[in-house]
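wait is this the right file?? whatever heres the structure
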């Protein structure tokens, strides 16, 4: 319903610093179009796409590309979605956005804004596989009821040590965390040898804090903060 997942959009006031950070982790910079008037860059590990915008907005945003956007906006409104903004006319690039019950921004664009990735399917960064995008929620059931009609399916639900649910989709998974309103939106990377990867990052003087504040993350976990203030949680697991 939302379209093709395009990127996690971040406000990046120093794009060059952000590019250096992600490239050091093994991300690749992609060619971008001239859609935006503000400075813009995209990096990828072959699976995950991060858009860096030198432009203030409700960051981070889960951003999708959807042709015939005006029609889709009407369909979403008919289903009960209330849009926070919309720019829909024939003389401009069409975009619209709405928020989930906990303030997570979702942006819809009429077309993609960067060139497709042409690397291998096995490409990953030093961080390994991204398992989910995590957000703090006030009510897991209410949040799940919001996201499920948009194409997400709950596959896991836990109550201890604190409420958590995993919602999957064909492009990105959502980790919903209750009982921790201080948790910032971020990405979770999970690998069996993550402790070794963390030690490698520490040796490179990356900004690492241990352990990750995620429940059940374990003492070997860590969180890496990007130049944009975005959290990358590093967990040991399958």
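ok assuming it is, sequence goes like this
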């Amino acid at each position: 319903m939302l379209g093709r997942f395009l990127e996690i959009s971040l406000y990046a006031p120093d794009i060059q610093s952000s590019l250096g950070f992600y490239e050091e982790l093994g991300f690749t910079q992609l060619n971008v179009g001239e859609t935006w008037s503000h400075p813009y860059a995209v990096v990828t590990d072959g699976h995950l796409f991060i858009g860096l915008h030198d432009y203030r907005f409700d960051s981070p945003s889960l951003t999708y590309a959807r042709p015939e956007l005006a029609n889709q906006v009407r369909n979403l409104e008919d289903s009960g979605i209330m849009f926070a903004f919309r720019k829909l006319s024939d003389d401009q690039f069409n975009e619209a956005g709405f928020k989930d019950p906990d303030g997570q921004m979702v942006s819809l664009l009429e077309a993609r804004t960067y060139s497709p990735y042409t690397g291998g399917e096995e490409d990953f960064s030093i961080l390994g596989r991204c398992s989910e995008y995590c957000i703090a929620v006030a009510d897991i059931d209410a949040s799940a009821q919001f996201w499920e009609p948009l194409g997400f399916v709950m596959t896991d639900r836990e109550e201890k040590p604190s409420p958590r649910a995993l919602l999957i989709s064909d492009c990105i998974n959502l980790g919903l965390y209750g009982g921790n309103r201080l948790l910032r939106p971020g990405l979770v990377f999970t690998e069996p040898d993550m402790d070794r990867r963390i030690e490698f990052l520490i040796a490179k003087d990356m900004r690492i804090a241990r352990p990750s504040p995620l429940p059940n993350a374990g003492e070997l976990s860590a969180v890496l903060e990007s130049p944009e203030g975005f959290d990358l949680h590093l967990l040991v697991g399958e």
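Residues 92 and 168 are 33 Å apart (CA to CA). so i think its the right one actually
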